[in-house]
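hiii, so i know i said id send this last week but things got crazy w the move. better late than never?? heres the sequnce for the chain we talked about at the cafe, plus the structure i predicted for it. fair warning i was half asleep when i ran it
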Amino acid sequence: MKSRSHSWLVVVALAALGLAGVQATLYLSYFYTPTQITPGTLWVVTPDGGAPVSLYESYRIFFIHLPSAYATATCCGLTALGGVMLLLTRKPQWESLVVSAAEGGLAFGALVLLTGTLWADFAWGSGRLGSGWNWEPRLTTMLILWLAFAALLVVRRALGQAQSRAQVTQITAVYGILLGPLYPLVSKAVEIGRIAHPLSFKDQLSAPEVALTQRVAGLGVLVALVALVALRYQWNELGRQIELERAA
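okay and structure toks below
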């Protein structure tokens, strides 16, 4: 009981650090980073091959968009790791990890889609909400990944009503493993066909102020991700223990 209370304290401490990191990111992105970095770097080529569009203030959304994308990639790796270990060991703790990572991927994947769409509305859309969504490979594969996270959770809950516990565990493990390669597909999607999404953000994020803010953002979102996954892991483990006690 004592060790369990200590684990909850660690989760709370991580959540507080993650919240502080996100707040620091928002402050730095709005009050520390410049409006324009270097002439000629803050732009994106429009999908129709027209004149480049200056990003001006809109690039600030990258400080949430990029770390959220990295967090989503981490969740893909965690689901794959949990799935492999679940198949090898059959220990329910690994199932909790798969589910918790999928829940984290669902949350941060939604942030990626939302911030990316809002930015695209300005960069190559008409400014209206949703006008930047053009079904290019990067956007579409990211949406598929997000739906895959959601499908894992929905299918698992649906099967839990009709299948044995062992079958649900096995399906969860296999599904978690299959999720692993999806983010590399999203990453490679910028090389497929003609796209509006920048191939790299290296030029846009090269200024010292922007680079520092990006490092703070990456660390803050990473800690927030760990806190979220740890919180959901503890919650899922608690739910499993309650189920065991009810069945006893």
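btw The radius of gyration is 20 Å. thought thatd interest u
miss u guys!!
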